[in-house]
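#random but structural
TW: two for the price of one
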Amino acid sequence: VAHGPSRSASGLVRMQQGPSAAAALAMAATLGTAQAASAARSGGHVGGRVGGGGGGRRGGGGGYRGGGPTNVIIAPPPLFSPFGFSPFGFSPFGFSPFGFGGFFGFGIPAPLLLLGLGGLALTSFRSARGIEAADAPGAALCLQVACYCSDRTDSLYGRLQSVARTADTQSYEGLQRLVSDTCLAMLRSSKDWMAGRVVSATAGVFTNDVESRYNRLVVQERSKWEEEQGNLKRTSVGEPTYMVATLVILLREGKDLPAINGASDLREAISQIAADVGVEDNLLAAELLWTPEDSNDVMDRDDMFLSFPELVML
């Protein structure tokens, strides 16, 4: 009898906990559904890098290579003029502090002579260590295309989905095919083009840090891509949508893409990238991003230009 009330109270507690537990389970299910819907809002992203971090390159090449002969430069002894002392070269008219005087006494300035010898020595050292000039990136290019996809299948949206599903970023050929197929998909979707944009960074006398520029472009475009995910709207499957596709590549050799003022400029820029990538061993890295990716996500025109303000209307 002493235990009766205790069991009864325990049963009452269990009865009171039943609705609360059911409510908690319902809330958890609701949150789980919301989180799953949020997780589904993700843009497409595929890419890689030749020689590591996705992608691979055929053959040797690239980077540091040990061994090999060492080039030694032996400076010639100073020449003496029968007409006077010349510590830097021959001068038939006497002392020449500037170097080789020829027959008229006009010498090569010593700073230029030293600079030339230094450049020759550096070139010989890099050659001996296997550091070739061709190993340095020559161009970082970014191409962006905005489209209206009335048909999710027969549009840039459907074509890029197909390209991404079959992409092989673990080999050089696969990475090369990814860029080539992306360019082809963009060209085939020209009737849906709404806007475009290009960014070019090429190596020069004062601009050699092209790889850092490529990395910054990738980070910038990924941040826009991630920010846009919060603006996408959920609809039924296959609804028409605006979309933005971004292709960023790093090349051994390349030139600036043409400025976008119309559809013909965008077509030329896409064709130029396809041609550059077709050159053997010219591609170093590539990144393809597009949004929206999920078939339930829709991006409207205002959100597109808000998230990608650099786009130029065609």
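TW: number two ↓
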Amino acid sequence: SSSSSSAATNKDKNTTAKSVSRNHTPSSSSSSSSYNLVDDPHDDRTFWTGWSGDDLRSNPELHISFDRLMMNPNRHDTTTCATTTRAVMTHALTALYQYGILLVHDTPTDDSVAMAALGAALGGGHYKQQFNATSLYSVYQQQNQQQRQPGKNDPQPQQQQQQDTEGPLQLDHGTDGPMRTLYGTVWSTTSAAGTSDDDDSLSQVDGASVADSAYGQDSLPLHTDMSYLHNPPGLQIFGMVQAATRGGESVYGDGFAAARALQRECPQHFETLSTIPRTYGCRDAATGWDLQAS
């Protein structure tokens, strides 16, 4: 069966990703004294543990519909649309900053263009109030507004569905949207990759890397993604296109809560991990990638 939900997380929260945003805060290594996560009076983030999917769905701060986020119902009124869009995006970005996670429900299934536009919107595209040809978010909104306007040349439902999946994943001179990675910009993972059960429509694009543990049937422990990049993505979006018939649960964790607990209980270990540079790497001989960052 198909599902229509996606989760957006900041880079310090643990998840796998289908799309990553290019707009982010660069990371850096330091050999100076470590940051105090325990007693910082200016840190207003919420540290959480033991949450379930039901906890996210029951908290209005942590979930929002795709249509409300991306296609404002008042878009015909420029003034109202700008105000409402700003309020909706403030809701979404506040959740991502304060909790590190946001559940977006009723997302289009198997629509890479929509996922790319979602990353563009959360990565700063919503600040461009008028149409902006450099914004993937603006282009996506304009295309969908035109398709939704009534008229004598309206496409039939089958044509409408075809049009909804068309469009760019990146703009040639774009200022927002997904970043390029060795897996592509928006990509699909499946545990059936390379097997007789492989569904080509859900597989990776030919030539892109599949050197990732997500392309398999083993359970994935909590982890952070793309630490082998000097500037890891600040936002990751994971969308479930098709539910697993058995297993397949996605596990998320609060990286700041884990670090805070470590600093409180084992300050010497926290000091070591936060001050001594480490080198992370990703190597894929099949496609020629050999990436390292400290």
